[in-house]
Amino acid sequence: MEPVKSNSLAGPRNAPLEMTPEEFRSLGHRLVDDVADLLGSLPSRPLSPAESPLQIRALLGDSPLPEHGTSAETLLQDAAKLLVDHSLFNGHPRFWGFITSPPAPVGILGEMLASAINPNVGGWILSPVASEIEAQTIRWITEMIGYPRDAGGILVTGGNMANMVAFLAARNGRVPWDARKHGLAGEGSRRLRIYASVETHTWLHKAVDMFGLGLDSINWIPAGPNQRINTGELRDKISADRARGDLPFMVIGTAGTVSTGAVDPLPEIAAIAREHNLWFHVDGAYGGFAAVAPNAPADLRGIGLADSVAVDPHKWLYAPLDAGCALVRDRNALHDAFTQQRPPYYQLLQDAEQAVNYFEYGPENSRSFRALKIWLAIRQVGRAGYAKMIGDDIRLAEALFELVSAHSELQAFRQGLSIATFRYVPRDLTPGDAKVEEYLDELNKAVLAALQKSGQAFLTNAVVSGTFVLRACIVNFRTSLADVQALPELVARLGAEQDLKLRPEALRRRAAAHKTSI
Fold this sequence. Notes:
By secondary structure, the protein is α/β, with parallel strands linked by helices. The chain folds into 3 domains: 23-86; 109-383, Aspartate Aminotransferase, domain 2; 388-517, Aspartate Aminotransferase, domain 1 (Alpha-Beta Complex), CATH 3.90.1150.170. Helix content is 44%, strand content 12%. The protein is built from 16 helices and 11 strands. Strands 1-7-6-5-4-2-3 form a 7-stranded mixed β-sheet, sandwiched between helices. Helix 10 links the parallel strand 4 (247-254) and strand 5. The termini are far apart.
């Protein structure tokens, strides 16, 4: 390695990444103008470019690592064009797929400001005001969903991580040995047991796998026709496991299932958990924030009874990705699950009076300033603003469900929170027969693909009682009643087109014979 020549660093440093304030201002103004134009044009744009992975990959090419740089102005223009012309827009008023909201404009600006300050919200000394903003944001979230204001909490990447943080707090809080020190072998071969509905999100599979409990530790509880957990089966399985020497420690309730928006009977689950001294966790990643809305299901009040809760601000608080939140009733239980003996390089993070070092409350050490975008939006609209927007989303899903129920070629299935599920059924086919049902599944898969490629609306699917259905999930402050009213006829038109292409001759003859007999 050649020695550094002292005169090579003399004078102002000319780092290739640096910009003057004037350069940054010019580029920033142009980018803000481009983003503002995009937001204004969303309703008139196709939702998706309907391009294949190979087509998108070809846009970027296969060039080697660049040896020399390109001007920031050119790069920003190129990046903006790529993203605007080749993205799926979850900010579009007819994006009703998965559970991803449009980003609040104030949150977009907040992300820029947070990046400019770039605090590391792992230690208080590295992020004094950012840490306090996160703490205040968490307190406001607890108030919004009816959870204790003095609970422990931390912002994380999303629902998976929020649920996993709570899972580790539960393991520490209910396992009767020091699991952090001895692992899972503290009491020989006793199997730890978790109880969850079959409708529970797949975060639980990841959690038991990552934390060494294994998939067999989950005792899956059947759900009824309404997709809510069967509490009678829950009681029976807890008792049976305890009788065989297993160690039940956690029960999970869901506040808004992914497929249909069902809310488990949370108050009843809380009572069962208390009876058996189990940790009661609520996965409210989707539906937890609906507790603020006046038209929310009454069972959401049970969130306040939970030992821990996961919610996602990037779902129903409309925050830009990413933002999840883990809440634990006992702040010390959250801290005890993650704190470690501090090595010398953490000595500067010694607690000031009542300071919170978030690296001791979750899995990350270095942490981005996720709170600002949420904090700004809460201050902009307040509790009342969120109650109205979330309540409107629920009402729009109810309106859609009524429309598909009344349509002669659409069959309604389930509606919960802001999710409506339904399918396309040609007028001359009668559901129920095994061959007809098999074809209707195939047909509706084709309808969904055609709908997504059309760029006119974006839905996903669910399987309800073994039936493939279309699923519209409205967590979108840009969606209007007119958007919802346009969907049934769009689905019916695409359904007729796909039916013409796909229907087997045998089913055509059967349908014709049925029509003749009538």
